[in-house]
Amino acid sequence: MTTPASPDGGSGAPAPQNGWGEPPRYGQYAPGYGPGEPATGAPAPQSAPQYGQGRYGQAQYGQAPYGQQPGAAPGGMPGALPPVADKPGIIPLRPLSLGEIYDGAFQAVRHNPGVVLGFTTIVLALAAAVGAVLSLPLTTIFADLWGQLEDVMAAETADPADAAALSQMSGLIPGLYGVGIGTGITLALATPLAMGGVALSVSESAIDKKVSMGDAWRRVGPRWWFLVALGLLQGLAVFVFLAVAVALVVGMFALDTGFGVLGAFLALAGYLVFIAWFFVRTLLIAPAIVLEGQGFWAAVVRGWRLTRGVFWRMLGIYLLTYLILWFLSQIITAPISYGLGFASVMADPIVVQIGVALTSLIAVLAQTIFLGAVVALLYIDTRMRREGLDVQLAAAAADR
């Protein structure tokens, strides 16, 4: 029998060790209450094997043909696990196909809309409200900058129509930039927190268990600053890359214009490659933070290791999902966009600012709900393929 590849890319190496130590059990985000684990933290009985005892393709799941009850040994003899259905919840307990991931994401919303929709909406709505407050000083800053630009442009044009159009835009442009940047920052920071709540609900729905809104707040809330810190870390990495790229391009332009144009194209290509690589490698960190109960850096290392060796598969699924959601969000926000265009003609800055904030919220909300469910299922699928999470899920489902 071929020994499956380890998460670190080696052959036959142990599964990744919970950041540093023991591989996490299913449900470790509620310490002391893993499947078959007493509240005192004593080792689980043999009826609930830990990770590494039954990896995919080895003892446990790989011994029985597809469709056989998990835990049934060859020949019909009872195995280590009680018999449970192959699909106790929203997904089958085996490595998932693309269609099963998408179906599971839709089923997750239907199974527990109170958390998947309610938790996400509350978190992002609060973030948008904070962004609206943050946009007030930003709008003032942009208004001052626009006023200076307007004075320069008015001095250079003698056409009264152009001057009137420029004056009309002075009430819209600062507000658009202020609200767009303010809500964009807060929504970006809150998105990992919202996706963490979705990941918790999806992980429970996988064994047909519905977590309540209060339980979601109790289990995700204490780790909110880890999730916000993840958003800050991602934003800081992008900012540093852009700062270095811009500095290099400016230096190349100082040497030669043609050299600078070439550098700008290379910087743009490098930025796209970096974004794809970095966000895929950090894709599973938020579920790891919520579901494994580790420290921040241990969860970062854990999520980073889980994506090793599966980059292209995750990138393809992520890009396809993002394109689908972008298309759907354009359809959803089209009426608001048309309204914004009319408000711009009527020069009503307050309506435009509210419309920009609402459009941003709806777009991020639609993407976070489904994309968060897909990411959570990718996390579960990766661990089923590498660490035998299907065995732990079967044990958790049997213990319900």
From TrEMBL:
Question: What UniProt keywords apply to this chain's record, in alphabetical order?
Answer: Membrane, Transmembrane, Transmembrane helix
Give the species this sequence originates from.
Answer: Myceligenerans pegani
Annotated TM spans? 115-143, 176-203, 224-253, 259-280, 315-338, 350-380
Where in this protein does the record put region Disordered?
A: 1-81
* Protein name per the record: Glycerophosphoryl diester phosphodiesterase membrane domain-containing protein
* Biased segments, Low complexity type: 23-72
